[in-house]
Amino acid sequence: MDRILPIGTAFTLPQGMPIRLAWRLLPPPWMTPGGPDVVGGSAMPLFGSLFTAISGMNAQSRALSNISGNVANSQTVGFKRLDTSFDDLVAQSGVNGDASGAVSASSTATTDIQGAVEQVDNPLSLALGGRGFFSVARPVSRAADGTASFDPQTMVSRAGDFSLDRDGYLVNGTGYALQGWASRADGTLDRNTLVPLRISTSAYQPVPTSQLSMSANLPATPPDGAMTSTVQVYDQLGNQQSLQMSWTQKSTDVWTLTVTPGTSTEAIGSIDLNFGPTASGTTAAAGTLGGFANGNGLAGSSFAQGSPATVSFNADFGQGQQPITLNLGTFGTASGITQYGGSSYEMRTLSQDGAAPGAFSSVSIKDNGEVVVNYDNGRNTVMGKVPVVTYADPDKLGRLDGQAFTETAEAGSALVSDAGSNGTGQLDVGSVERSNVDISAEFSKLIVAQRAYSANTKIVTATDEMLQDALNMRR
């Protein structure tokens, strides 16, 4: 027959009876279901106070870890501090009181709290004034031609210290590539997919002139002789060529336009312009263009009140026929070419759409997010656009190295929008968002954590002394 006796219990045995001694460690009464109440009973929860104090030390260590990380990253662009929250843990609750509990610490994100925006010298730096993130991608490898492969995981960041790397990608200080909507061949944006924005530094291809636009007033009483205007155009190789346009009054309200290449005495062609209702036989008001007639090498558009008045012709600069359209305004209105009173020829505007070849000059980002490549010939091309990504609960995003965050189910689905729309922040070009860490506040929290940790160590020391006193009772 086995009996459990406390240590120190006296007992007698019949002579000759064998005895087997075994030691068993029993839990304290307050940890036994149905045992005495901690507060109301006789048990003394020394071990409970010890465990509680240790949990307090662990919790303050967690707080100290967050504080140290915040202070270390106080100057990190786009860093979001971690605060610490404490939760009470109740080990056991009874009608006469509660057992010694514990405390747990957890980190609280401040991802949605704005940091200070500071202007910098880098024109490609971006900051967000308000909610949202930049979409970024992490390069994992590079091919021989510089094309990068990226981690497919969805990532966002507020670190906007972007610059061009050697392969033309816009990357921030930690190497994450900026993603956006890329431009299609026709200049429109592909808003269905976010891709890493890569800037091409190749030369700008020459654009042969195909459109001329002219605005001038032909005097109703001109001097003798022709009135001329010369415009510089570009051929198919990007070379600059000249076209001379001569105006001669043929009769009242009728003028003849002759187009001649600057390197030739042979005209490309001519055409008559009729002004007002009498000469044109249309409803055009006096002094406005009412129609074309007698085209020779030049073809004019048909009259319709308010419709474009254009003259089409082919120019040959040595590379074959180059079609060009001259826009002279609209029929029946005082835009483009007119014939009003006076005796002098008045040229207002004369422009063309061609361009010489150009070398890469720079890249810039507009306030609306458009990424523009500039060339030394004065032209530019929109390569893409930077959108803003928002989440329902950004504080629930997962944290990654390099001030980046990743999607989680708790944060919600990503909403990709233009900057400044759907509640997103505005882009601030040439600026960066600093860390949202307040050094003075962190040092205040450091003092509190240090004092709380010391207080818990005092409890551990006091509990140890009391346990030692209990053990000394047997001496």
Topology summary:
Blueprint (H helix, E strand, L loop, with lengths): L45 H27 L9 E8 L3 E2 L2 E2 L3 E8 L7 E3 L6 E4 L4 E4 L1 E4 L5 E3 L4 E3 L5 E2 L5 E2 L5 E6 L12 E2 L14 E7 L9 E8 L5 E12 L2 E8 L7 E7 H5 L8 E8 L2 E2 L7 E9 L4 E10 L6 E2 L7 E7 L7 E6 L4 E6 L4 E6 L2 E3 L7 E3 L3 E3 L8 E3 L8 E4 L1 E3 L5 H33 L4
Subcellular location: Bacterial flagellum basal body
Family: Belongs to the flagella basal body rod proteins family.
InterPro entries: Falgellar_hook_FlgE_sf, Flag_bb_rod_N, Flagellar_FlgE/F/G, Flg_bb/hook_C_dom, FlgE/F/G-like, FlgE_D2
Structure description:
This protein is mainly β. It has three domains: 37-83 and 96-105 and 438-474; 117-201 and 385-433, no CATH class; 211-352, Flagellar hook protein FlgE (Tick-borne Encephalitis virus Glycoprotein, domain 1, Sandwich), CATH 2.60.98.20. Helices cover 14% and strands 36% of the residues. The chain has helices at 46-72, 276-280, 439-471; strands spanning 82-89, 93-94, 97-98, 102-109, 117-119, 126-129, 134-137, 139-142, 148-150, 155-157, 163-164, 170-171, 177-182, 195-196, 211-217, 227-234, 240-251, 254-261, 269-275, 289-296, 299-300, 308-316, 321-330, 337-338, 346-352, 360-365, 370-375, 380-385, 388-390, 398-400, 404-406, 415-417, 426-429, 431-433. The strands form ten sheets. Strands 7, 10, 13, 14, 26, 27, 28, 30 and 31 form a nine-stranded antiparallel beta sheet that branches. Strand 11 and strand 12 (170-171) form a beta hairpin. The longest helix is centred in the last third of the chain and has 33 residues, at 439-471.
